[in-house]
Design goal:
The complex is a heterodimer of chains A (57) and B (318). With 57 residues, chain A is an all-alpha fold. Chain A has a domain of 32 residues. In chain A, 39% of the residues lie in helices and 0% in strands. Chain A is built from 2 helices and no strands. The longest helix of chain A is centred in the middle third of the chain and has 16 residues. The longest helix of chain B has 16 residues. In chain B, the strands form 2 sheets. A 5-stranded mixed β-sheet of chain B has the order 2-1-3-4-8. Chain B is built from 11 helices and 8 strands. Chain B has one domain. With 318 residues, chain B is an alpha/beta fold. Classes of the chains: A mainly alpha (57), B alpha/beta (318). Chains A and B meet through α1 of A and α6, α7, α9 and α11 of B.
């Protein structure tokens, strides 16, 4: 999944997979911080997989 | 390849005469050139309509899903692998099938031929000596078959059927991965930057009209209700908004991960000529590299995404 998304042109910095137990609150905070930092560090700010047109029912 | 056709007819007639099968699935001449249509022959007379040449590009495994009859079916390398996938996934029983194996010399790419023609092609002659003659109003052209092969056929490393009950011709020499690189195109895309990749797929899908021909031609896409057709919940928008189009292609490809045999039916059926294999071939390459897996090579092994092994690659999980 990660490979194909990257193959399609999603930056690796935007993709994170992690296994966090409900008891690991500190790990969650840690991962969430790293993910946002990595995504914000990207030069290309273009949003991907975001629809701008109204959704057709 | 006249002898192929004759052998296929002979075997099919014998099977029907001896009541070994209820029908034989093969191809007959379609209403337009370059696209033979799948045909179910249910008696010996109908068998005479069968034809075999370089225009039999649709995958016949698509037509055996959940069938209850005893079926004779033609199978090239990729078709036989898809039949094996069907057997593994419980969509048909091996005992129901009599597989007429066809060592395959590749199918021609109708989009390439159309681009070469000076007008509409009205008839195609397969010379059986490696050349193809296309004819239309005011033109006739003979081309080298190797030049107009479908891309998946030109890099195919499983031309001979992997399972069969009887062969309709002598086995052909297999191409080796060292001689032809099946993943050359994937590697080209892999070498691009994320922006270039994104642009490549944007461009690739810009013509997509969401007709779902690729899905319908695919033997793997047998879900009674496809995720794109479901409306409650609606997983993906039904518009041709580029996000929706990309979501459809990406998810459909992913549903085929570890199951796709690169038969090229999706590309062949696409009315606007999108190379859908740019998605699926990447997954095929990953499966080979990560799981040492090629789909449909036997009827026992479960596909990699269907099984758990303690040593499954998990470097991507942090």
């Amino acid at each position: 999944m990660k490979n194909l998304l990257e193959h399609m042109g999603i930056e690796p910095e935007r993709l994170h997979f992690s296994w966090i137990s409900s008891a690991e609150s500190t790990k969650f905070v840690d991962v969430a911080t790293k993910v946002t930092e990595a995504a914000k560090s990207l030069e290309n700010k273009e949003k991907k997989f975001v629809k701008t047109k109204p959704k057709v029912a | 390849m006249k002898s192929y056709t004759d052998n296929i007819k002979e075997i099919s007639k014998r099977l029907l005469k001896e009541d070994k099968v209820d029908m034989v699935i093969g191809y007959r001449t379609g209403s337009v050139p370059l696209m033979h249509q799948p045909f179910f022959a249910q008696n010996q007379e109908e068998v005479d309509e069968f034809v075999w040449d370089s225009n039999c590009g649709l995958n016949l495994a698509n037509y055996i899903t959940d069938r209850t009859e005893r079926i004779g079916i033609l199978a090239t390398g990729c078709n036989s692998r898809n039949i094996a996938v069907h057997i593994v996934e419980g969509k048909i029983k091996r005992e129901q099938l009599y597989i007429i194996g066809i060592p395959c010399k590749g199918m021609v790419d109708r989009h390439k031929l159309s681009a070469m023609a000076d007008g509409d092609i009205t008839s195609v002659e397969d010379e059986n000596n490696g050349s193809i003659t296309i004819t239309g109003q005011n033109f006739s052209k003979t081309v080298d078959k190797a030049e107009v092969l479908q891309e998946n056929c030109s890099v195919c490393v499983h031309r001979n059927p992997v399972i069969y009950d009887e062969l309709a011709a002598e086995e052909v020499t297999e191409q080796k991965r060292d001689d032809v690189d099946p993943y050359a195109r994937v590697k080209e895309i892999e070498a691009l930057s994320p922006e270039e990749k994104w642009a490549h797929f944007d461009d690739l899908l810009s013509d997509c009209i969401r007709c779902y021909a690729c899905r319908n031609a695919c033997p793997l896409c047998y879900c009674p209700l496809c995720f794109v057709d479901e409306s409650n919940p609606q997983w993906v928008g039904k518009s041709i908004d580029h996000t929706d189009v990309r979501t459809f292609h990406f998810l459909r490809a992913y549903h085929c991960a570890g199951r796709c045999t690169d038969c090229g039916a999706c590309v062949r059926s696409c009315p606007v000529g999108i190379n859908v294999r740019d998605f699926t071939k990447k997954l095929e390459k990953d499966c080979l590299e990560l799981f040492d897996w090629e789909a449909g090579l036997n009827t026992e092994q479960r596909p990699p995404l269907d099984t758990y092994r303690p040593d499954d690659p998990e470097e991507f999980i942090k």
